[in-house]
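Lab notebook, bench 4. Still working through the backlog of constructs that have no structural model yet. Next entry is a single chain of 413 residues. Request: give me the structure tokens for it.
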Amino acid sequence: MILLRFGVAARLGLLATGLLLGPASSSAASPRGLWVLCEGSQRVLESPEKVDWLLADARALGVTDLFVQVYRGGRAWFPSQHADAGPYARVFRKGDSDALDVLIRRAHAEGLRVHAWVNVFHLASNPTAPILRDLGRRAAAVDQHGRSILDYPGFEVPPPDRRYYRMGTPGVWLDPGAPGVRDRLVATFRELVGRYPGLDGVHLDYIRYPDVLPFTPGARFGVGLSFGYGEPSRARFLRETGLVAPVGESLGNANRWDDWRRAEVTRTVGAISTGVRELAPQMRMSAAVISDRERAYLVDFQDWAGWLDAGLIDFAVPMLYTTDDRRLGYSLDAYRGLAQSRELWVGLGSWLFRKEPERARAQLRMVEGTPLGSALFSWDALRETPGLLRALSRPDPPPSDVSAAGSDDLAPR
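Model written out:
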């Protein structure tokens, strides 16, 4: 309860003082974010001339906030004692400042906010990340059959299960309930904020358990694959609840087990939020989240609506990456009906329309007709496709006859 009260109080206080708005201009227009990859085609933190390109494109796109990726796969694009800081050696320097310093100052001069975008529980394909080296294999995700994801071939579901299942996002995943994981992540992101006090926010990504296709709504049905079953997590569950976690084919205490895993993700969000705001009370916390609220809650144990209610984050960015415009419309209607609607920025998969840029613009116009914010994935994709960048930059393009393609794609984050 102390943690929840801190989050709410911090948000109310910042709203009252106006600090929550940051340096961006306080117009009536809805906010618009732009994701900027650390290892995409542009690598802006390694090329000083690309800062000019990014800021020019942000102006043309009507962007108010930049989500700049600085932590991925356990590697840091900032000086760090807790992560692999090898990538930091490649960032450009200018006087006594480094790339992120320069970008923050330049963006603020343009009236833009800069958020540090960090991948939390997903370590890409990096089994040697410092967090695993220091905490050991027991920090990695384990399925209900006792198999560590570190032993999955290519970090994909092993046979014979591979005939029926696929990882939603292959790679190395941390177990949110494993001892030491939360503390290490908090220390890493406090280190980041302490080094760059000019940041306007921290943007959490992959802040959930891994999922498997087809999706399974929790442990209670005894089907599918699910994670978090490492011995240290099951031992903690027993100590804290007096109950035995289901494992293998067992369904005993499945609902309580799902609640516990969901709470572990929420506790991590709260701990990061509290740790960051202790250093920088003005910092805005946000998260890129699964777009379907019920799926997020039941499958990925990501209660993002609850995080908003508790003040653990200031806004959420549902990743509504789809080429199906009817689905987009249904989701926008659902978001507008939520109590948290003004704290939602709709993440659009603009890269999906490389060959149909007017359809990307049509989706953006659908969001512009609501009180919701928006976010574009990603600057790298827009830079690679000038026609897409032009279509999204035009203030008022002619109406398009948009048809529904009916397929979704996952973004490489």
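Notes after review: DSSP finds 13 helices and 13 strands in the chain. The CA atoms of residues 5 and 225 lie 36 Å apart. Flag for follow-up if needed.
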